[in-house]
């Protein structure tokens, strides 16, 4: 693919994310106009709305893999590793949160499981290490606990979508740490230790 074509494709995807976030029912024509391309150009890259959603899902999958890499810092404690994992994935989830609703309606069965599998696997690995060191609760196997963490993050993202809460990641990280058995003051201190901020006050 030539550089001009690659630039067009990237611009269309970026605009599609923005337009679908503002209006999940946005049409192909509306996305093409917003991207500054004619409909034929958009269809040259994406034969239809489903192909566009699949491309956004592929982009999200790559972003998840990059987030896992970015969250891996040698020397982190299990609690710090889980907090970084959460904050990095929160950025991806926030960017692609509209895909969650649209994907369940339009994409193939199992698409979300495939998308989230690398994150679940990494989360389970961190939880296993923390359970071995008695940092996290061990009443559930790490794979089951990781699924619970994933569900909590999805619900928190939905809360942001509904305007019930605002967060850039640290709040979600505190919630996840508490959810796996870390005391609230310790969870706040852990998140502060990786974000360079003072621990949040509160009960």
Task: Kindly describe this structure.
- The structure is a single chain.
- The chain is an all-alpha fold and 203 residues long.
- It folds into 2 domains: 47 residues, Arc Repressor Mutant, subunit A (Orthogonal Bundle); 148 residues, Orthogonal Bundle (Tetracycline Repressor, domain 2).
- It has 10 helices and no strands.
- Helix 9 packs antiparallel against helix 10.
- It starts with a helix and ends in an 8-residue tail after the last helix.
- The C terminus is likely disordered.
**Separation of termini?**
56 Å
- Number of separate structural domains: 2
Approximately what portion of the residues adopt beta-strand conformation? under 5%
Structural class: mainly alpha
The CATH architecture of the largest domain comes to Orthogonal Bundle
Number of strands: 0
Low-confidence stretches: 198-203
By CATH, the topology of the largest domain is: Tetracycline Repressor, domain 2
Q: Describe the main β-sheet briefly.
A: none
Class of the largest domain in CATH?
Mainly Alpha
Global mean pLDDT: 89
The helix content is over 70%
> What letter string, H or E per element, gives the SSE order?
HHHHHHHHHH
The value of Rg in angstroms is 19 Å
Short description:
This protein has 203 residues and is mostly helical.
């Amino acid at each position: 693919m030539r550089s001009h074509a690659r630039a067009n494709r990237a611009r269309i995807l970026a605009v599609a994310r923005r337009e679908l976030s503002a209006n999940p029912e946005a049409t192909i024509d509306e996305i093409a106009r917003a991207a500054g391309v004619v409909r034929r150009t958009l269809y040259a890259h994406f034969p239809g709305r489903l192909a566009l959603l699949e491309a956004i899902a592929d982009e999200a999958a790559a972003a998840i893999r990059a987030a896992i890499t970015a969250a891996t810092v040698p020397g982190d404690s299990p609690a710090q590793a889980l907090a970084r994992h959460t904050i990095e994935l929160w950025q991806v989830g926030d960017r692609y949160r509209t895909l969650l609703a649209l994907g369940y309606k339009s994409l193939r069965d199992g698409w979300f499981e495939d998308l989230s599998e690398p994150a679940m696997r990494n989360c389970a690995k961190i939880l296993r290490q923390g359970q071995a060191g008695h940092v996290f609760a061990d009443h559930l196997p790490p794979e089951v606990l990781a699924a619970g963490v994933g569900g909590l993050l999805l619900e928190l993202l939905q809360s942001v979508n509904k305007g019930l809460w605002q967060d850039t990641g640290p709040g979600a990280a505190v919630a996840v740490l508490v959810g796996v058995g870390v005391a609230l003051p310790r969870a706040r201190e852990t998140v502060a230790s990786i974000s360079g901020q003072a621990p949040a006050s509160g009960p």
